[in-house]
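User: Here's a structure from my thesis project, written as structure tokens. My advisor, Dr. K., wants to see whether a designed sequence matches the one we expressed. Can you design one independently, without my sequence as a hint?
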């Protein structure tokens, strides 16, 4: 006895399955909720986030300075963080302005996993 798919199912290739499974979609209502929560709490959370960022950066810089090649690791890490932040901000604003959702995909950038954001 063999299994038969209903007529409305379509067979797809392996590459298509890999492409479809490779990301996350955030709906417009969720994007709006995130924006409103961040907007409402920004004036309260900015001082705490600034202090945490300074303490974290100081701790990480001290640990990296102690190992050989730590400056190079710090430079690659900073470039990675700036690249990701530079990708999410315009996509997030574009999704809000165009009333679209946010598409998040994972790719590779010089051997490192890279998040890519776009309004869709």
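Assistant: Designed independently from the structure alone:
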């Amino acid at each position: 006895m063999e299994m038969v798919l209903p007529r409305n199912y379509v067979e797809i290739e392996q590459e298509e399955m890999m492409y479809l499974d490779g990301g996350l979609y955030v709906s417009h209502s969720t994007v709006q909720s995130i924006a409103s929560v961040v907007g409402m709490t920004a004036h309260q959370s900015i001082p705490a986030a600034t202090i945490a960022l300074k303490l974290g950066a100081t701790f990480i810089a001290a640990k990296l300075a102690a190992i050989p090649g730590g400056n190079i690791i710090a430079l690659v890490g900073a470039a990675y963080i700036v690249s990701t932040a530079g990708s999410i901000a315009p996509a997030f604003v574009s999704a809000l302005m165009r009333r679209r959702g946010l598409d998040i995909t994972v790719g590779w950038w010089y051997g490192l996993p890279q998040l890519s954001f776009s309004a869709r």
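When you compare it with your expressed construct, this may help: The longest strand covers residues 102-109.
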